[in-house]
Amino acid sequence: MEIVVGISGASGVQYGVRLLQVLQEKGCFAHLVVTDSARKILEIETDFMPAEIDRLASCVYRPHDFAAPIASGSYLFDAMVVIPCSMGTLSAIACGSSDTLITRAADVCLKEKRRLILVPRETPLSLVQLRNMVAVAEAGAVVLPASPAFYSRPKNVEDLVDVLVGRVLDLLGLENDQYPRWEGNAYNRLNQNGWM
Fold first, then answer.
1. pLDDT value, residue 196
2. Residues 141, 110: contact at Cβ < 8 Å?
3. HEC-encoded secondary structure of the chain
4. Is the pLDDT at 191 greater than 80, yes or no?
5. pLDDT exceeds 60 at position 195
6. What is the number of other CB atoms lying within 10 angstroms of the CB of residue 27?
7. Rounded CA gap, 158 and 143, in Å?
8. Poorest-confidence range of 28-42, 64-78, 87-101, 142-156?
9. Sheet holding 79-85, edge to edge
10. Angle 87-95/101-112 helices, nearest 10 degrees?
11. Is pLDDT above 70 for 129?
């Protein structure tokens, strides 16, 4: 599978790094675009160096490289994930503004009817941000907020990150065991089997 991964300048770059690690493990071809602000946040929030992240991808492009193949609808790739997706990036995608390679590749996904997954990491949300989320969803994107589940009983931050990355992989159609699946609670299972 050929996936475009955009990491924009929002808190939560760990999600993008972990997605790249898993895609590499699965043998997927990953195109990577990291904004300048995301590279700064990477240094603030993690112990990773930008070069380490670049090595997780099959191809790496500069944020304004409009000559990159992923900037054209004629180049075939399967899907795109912007993880994390800053509100500025989401706004640009909602408005069809293709002023960066991430927003151009996202625009390609929308116009070519390819899977586009946006992972915003912001709270609280303003009315403008909510309207932008509605606009991208109406245009065909999937909005997957960085809201990990707790039913899996996470023991650390890595477990929380894996839950979200697993949900992204689910939406990409990639089998994974990144997190425990919900199977209902014991009380409901007892009721369904007529034990109570």
1. 47
2. yes
3. CEEEEEECCCCCHHHHHHHHHHHHHCCCEEEEEECHHHHHHHHHHCCCCHHHHHCCCCEEECCCCCCCHHHCCCCCCCEEEEEEECHHHHHHHHHCCCCCHHHHHHHHHHHHCCEEEEEECCCCCCHHHHHHHHHHHHHCCEECCCCCCCCCCCCCHHHHHHHHHHHHHHHHCCCCCCCCCCCCCHHHHHHHCCCC
4. no
5. no
6. 7
7. 22
8. 142-156
9. 59-61, 29-34, 2-7, 79-85, 115-120, 142-143
10. 50
11. yes
pLDDT of 12 > 90? The answer is yes
**Tokens 């640009």 -> residue:** 92
Strands 2-7 and 142-143 turn out to be: unpaired
Sketch out the chain's domains with CATH numbers.
2-192 (3.40.50.1950)
pLDDT the model gives residue 169: 97
Residue 194: what pLDDT? Answer: 55
> Residue 168, class by beta-carbon neighbours within 10 Å (0-12 exposed, 13-18 middle, 19+ buried)?
buried
**C-alpha pair distances (Å), 188 with each of 3, 146, 152, 181, 182:** 39, 28, 17, 16, 12
